[in-house]
Structure formats: C-alpha cells, structure tokens
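Weekly puzzle thread! Below is a chain. First person to post its structure in token form gets bragging rights.
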Amino acid sequence: MNNKIIEIEDIQKSFNYGGNLLSILKGITLHVSSGEFVAIMGPSGSGKSTLMNIIGLMDRPTAGSYRLQGQATEGLHEEERCRLRNKTMGFVFQSFNLLPRFTALRNVEIPMLYGGIAAFERSKRAQALLERVGLEHRLYHRPNDLSGGERQRVGIARALANQPSVLLADEPTGNLDQRTGKEILLLFRELHQEGKTIIMVTHDREVARWADRVVTIQDGAILLNDTQEVFLQKHGYDCGKPSLEPGLVSL
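Winning reply:
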C-alpha cells in the first residue's frame, strides 16, 4: 500500500525576469509519507519558499509532476485546486496572519466558513481547538491582546480547523522569542505524535532538528535529505529529540 501523501517528481520553476529566464527550482524530487514530520531547510533565496508554495497549491510548477494524496494536480483548474487545498492543507505563518478585528474564536472559525460547516459546529470545533492549544482562557481576546506565542497558537488552531491531512508551517518560530519558540515546536511535536503530517520551512538548523527528516535545499536543488539521526550526528548534537527541560537544548 502506498502511504505517500506528497509525491513530487522533477519539479522545476522558472520566472521571466527582465527578459531573462530565472530558474528557481531545478528538478526537485521529494516524497513525504503520511504521518511524517519533515523540515525543509535552506538559506534565503534557496527556493524553499517557492517549493512550499507549490506543495500548498498556491503556485504551479513550470515542469514536473505533483501528486497529492494520489491525485495528480497539474491539470486541475483553480477552483479544483482551491477545494483540494482547503480540504487537505492547513497553513501556519511566521507573521500569524490573524484578522485583528476578530476574536481568537472567530479567527479559528473562518476557514470552516469556506467548508460549509454549520455555525454551531464551527463554534464548537473552534473552541475545542483553542483548548487543544492551551488557549481556553483567551477565546474572546483579539490578536492585539495576545502575546506572540498565543497568536501563533491561534494560528495553529486555525490551521487545524478543517481537519487537514497536512500542516504546512513557514518559519513558525521566526517572530517568537527563544522560550516561546520551543513551546510552539513542542506543540508541533505533539500534533505529529497524534498522526499529523507536518512540513516545516526554516532557515535555522536548531528548529529543523525537531523534525524526523531534514531536506536541505541550496540553489534550487536538494543538497541533502537526512534522517533526524544523521542530521544530529552531522551537526554534533546528541541523538534524540530536543527537550524543553532547561539547559538541555538551545533553540
């Protein structure tokens, strides 16, 4: 049985820039199994964000193939891509992207509006998700009344609203302090242990080390595709997942 949820084969992405063809992705092949926690790591300009946009059906490749849950995506119309994205993907952003006029509860409900979920069920599910991320005491607070870590927890709850198969996280700790960043990574670990597939983009190897697999991209191509154990050994870490205990790991 094929348990691959994401199958990317020889993906290329080019842009026409000032009359010149600029190649961003140069033949990326990447498979992600259901339940995996994968970090995509690379410096600014490496192509990792472009790859994430293609995985999230926010952009189309110039060439190559992409199957999501066994479904070919190349020939889908935009409306079909939107439906598949809303059903399959949950997005977590570095800058949170919460609507400032809405409460935490309302922000989490919004994706369910597009899914046609009834108002009572939306409210019930949103409340349960906020409780799941430890914000049962912040249901009716607006984003400006929340700390950075609390805003990101709302963002994670919102990403889970439509019960997606895959969580896509773009630099989810980038705007957080060290301790809060660790708490968010611990929450991702818990979601992964519950069976969620997570793909996380980062430029920081201290964040990437929380994943089961680390894919390093450089100049639009995959440079390394390491298991967590190999990644930790290469960078001189003790084997084993990072801990929140003081002094055991630095973010």
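Puzzle host: Confirmed. Bonus trivia for everyone else. The first strand starts at residue 4 and ends at 17.
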